[in-house]
Amino acid sequence: MPEPIINGLLIVVFVVVLTAGYAGLSAAPWVPTRKGERASLAAKLKLKKGQTVYDLGSGDGSLLFTLAERFPDCRLVGLKISLLPFLISLVRRLAGRSRYRNVRLLFRDLYRTDLSGADLVFAYLTPGCYGRISKKFSKELKDDCIVVIEAWPIPGLEHRDKIVGDRQLPLYVYDGHQFRTGR
């Protein structure tokens, strides 16, 4: 194989590994939300036409695509900083064409993205980033923004609902104002 091709492949591998490492250290590694959890969440949500949903660390876009089919009149935004799952989500969106017209995928750091327009925020992150993300939520989220956290509750905040199912990780539901008031 010619040297320029080998060098190009090494650069691509380096970038994929670097972005995956940064994502894993800053918020969470790529661990997809299970199909049952996506279905439970989609069934419980009562989104209205025109509302905006953010998936922080959207991975391969599975949750967004599930929501797109159930809520075609909502704006769905996925944020991902790890290159490989982001590219997979882009391919899935392109393959879905008009079915996913309301899904926007951004290769962007969640900490550098304004969430003030969110009506619902979903996050499957590691507890190590909860302090930083809670501070961001307290500054940016509307009082009535719904926050759904998968797997581990936010320490010090009482969730207003907990969605559990057979062989599923729990989903903890909060309101935006809780990140400012602590209640």
TrEMBL record:
GO biological process, alphabetically ordered: methylation
InterPro entries: FAM173A/B, SAM-dependent_MTases_sf
Domain of life, per lineage: Bacteria
The keyword rRNA-binding is annotated on this UniProt entry: no
Keyword set includes Chloroplast: no
Keywords: Membrane, Methyltransferase, S-adenosyl-L-methionine, Transferase, Transmembrane, Transmembrane helix
Regions that span the bilayer: 6-31
Molecular function in Gene Ontology: protein-lysine N-methyltransferase activity
Gene3D superfamilies reported in the protein's UniProt record: Vaccinia Virus protein VP39
Name listed for the protein in its UniProt record: O-methyltransferase domain-containing protein
Source species of the chain: Candidatus Uhrbacteria bacterium CG_4_10_14_0_8_um_filter_58_22
Source species taxonomy: Bacteria, Candidatus Uhriibacteriota
